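Lab notebook: predicted structure, single chain.

Context: the supervisor wants predicted structures on file for every construct in the current expression panel, including those that have not yet been purified. This is the next one on the list. No modifications to the sequence; it matches the entry in the shared construct table.
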Amino acid sequence: MSKLKLVLGIVAIAFVTLTAVSCKDAKTDKNNSTEHHSEMNADGDHSKMNHDNSDGHHDGDKKEMTMNGNGTSQAVLNDYFSLKDALVADDNAKAKNLGGVLAKSLKAFDTSKYSGNEQSELNDIIEDAIEHAEHIAESAMDHQREHFKILSKDIADMIAITGTENTLYQQFCPMYDGGSAWLSMSEDIKNPYYGSKMLTCGKVQKEIN
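Prediction complete. Output recorded below exactly as produced.
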């Protein structure tokens, strides 16, 4: 009888031990499965993040392309007016930078849609305008204004051929260098040749439509 109890006790201990081991293995498998699942989720999130970054980069390129000069007279005018405003503000460094920007817009100007004679005239005008824009990009304020006077004549000659999307105003200062003109999108006089010294010196010479 005691032998039977001993055998039963050994069997019971073996059963408990086996159950405990099986439970531990199952828990380990579950943990491994959970870790594997977590790694997959992390990889999934990483993939999603990379995809989102890729989309963001694409949008950035698209935006940059939209902002680039489009080779039209309007693009040239926009950069010319920005340069004018820098001279009005007596900002030599900004005018230097914008002189370079305008030179690039002029070089990118596509004349192919104009007639043969117009193309020839535009090419001569643009070549001269580029030279003065590049000088502005390298000069002190007084020389910038000297080159801006001739540049303004070139831009006015360009508009006489290409036309303009907006109403422009040719303005005139009788005091600077024997009389000097410039173009503006506003009737208000803001003199780029004297800046803050004589900001409102000048008059509207004509309206350009």
